[in-house]
Amino acid sequence: MPTIFYRSPPPAKPKPGPTVMTVRTHQPWRCLSLLAVVILIMGGIGLFLYQQNLQVLGQNKQAVIEQVREQEAQRQRNANLTFQNKELRKKIATLIHSTQTSQATYVQVLQSLKQAQQDVQDLGEELQLYKRLFDSKIPIRAENEVSINSFSINYDETSGYYQYRLVLIQLVKVAKPLQGQWQIEMIGQSNGIDQQLNMNQITLGNHHSQPYQVHRLQKLVGYLQFPTNFNPKQVIIRLIPARPKTATEIRFQWTDLLNKESL
Questions:
Q1: Distance CA 134, CA 181 (A)
Q2: Residue at a domain's end among 136, 160, 175
Q3: What is the dihedral of CA 128, 129, 131, 134, to 10 degrees?
Q4: Alpha helices of 193-246 — where are they, by DSSP H?
Q5: pLDDT digits 0-9 by tens, 178-187
């Protein structure tokens, strides 16, 4: 048979009593005080922001002033550099002009010196010629009336050619102008092969012979050019008189001719 349990009901809750509202007296001074505090706080914040703005504006103004001063100083430095640059260019131009003038003067002096040396050499050759005429026992008429007094070759760095100088003389006490032809030939090697070059192959004028007209003394000056890979060994000078006479031929070693005179 089932067991039945009995639970008693909970006690009843007490009923709430009537609510009593408390009415406080109105105090307007508190609102005014709060409003004054808010105004003071907003004023303080506004004053702080105003001072901050003034400070920032002052800093910006100072920065602008410093920037303007720096730009002015930079402009002044640029102006000074421009002036110095102009002055330096003027000095350089003056120096270049002076250098060019000095170089031109040096070239003129060098040319004058070379001409003076050439004149001295010419006078020496003429004096040597007359000394030989007066000191030696030469007949009034000689068969071999024109002879070679000297022959020299020098390398000209300006043109890249070899300059020759041939001096012809008359060894007679009573000299008359004599005419004829002269030739120059070159013996050497090209690529290991012996070769002989005629006058038209080594002179700039492309002539087989050149005329001469001697009255006591005559100087013949010109330039020689050689083919590529040509190695000169000997120089042949040939004098061919206008009158039917035997031609005179003299040979010079190339190594003996460079930078010195062969007599």
A1: 28
A2: 136
A3: 170
A4: 199-202
A5: 888 999 999 9
Strand partners, 262: 151
pLDDT digit string, tens, across residues 100-122: 887 878 777 877 777 777 667 66
Q: What share of the chain is helix, strand, coil (3-state, %, to 5)?
A: 45, 25, 30
CB atoms within 10 A of CB 189: 13
Cβ partners under 8 Å of residue 173, min gap 6: 133, 138, 140
- 150 and 113 in a common domain: no
Q: What is the torsional sign of CA 55, 59, 65, 68?
A: negative
First CA to last CA distance, the chain: 174
Alpha carbon distances (Å) from 33 to 24, 29, 41, 43, 75 = 19, 6, 12, 15, 61
Q: Which domain holds residue 111?
A: 29-136
Could you tell me the pTM of the whole model?
0.52
92 within domain boundaries: yes
Q: In what order do the strands lie in the sheet with 146-155?
A: 217-224, 162-170, 146-155, 261-262
Which two tokens mark 113?
């010196």
CA proximity to 232, closest of 149, 155, 150: 155
Do both 33 and 99 map to the same domain?
yes
Distance, CA of 77 to chain centre: 31
DSSP 136-179: S---SS-S--EEEEEEEEEE-TTTSSEEEEEEEEE--SS---EE
In sequence order, the β-bridge partners of residue 150 are 167
> DSSP code of 216?
S
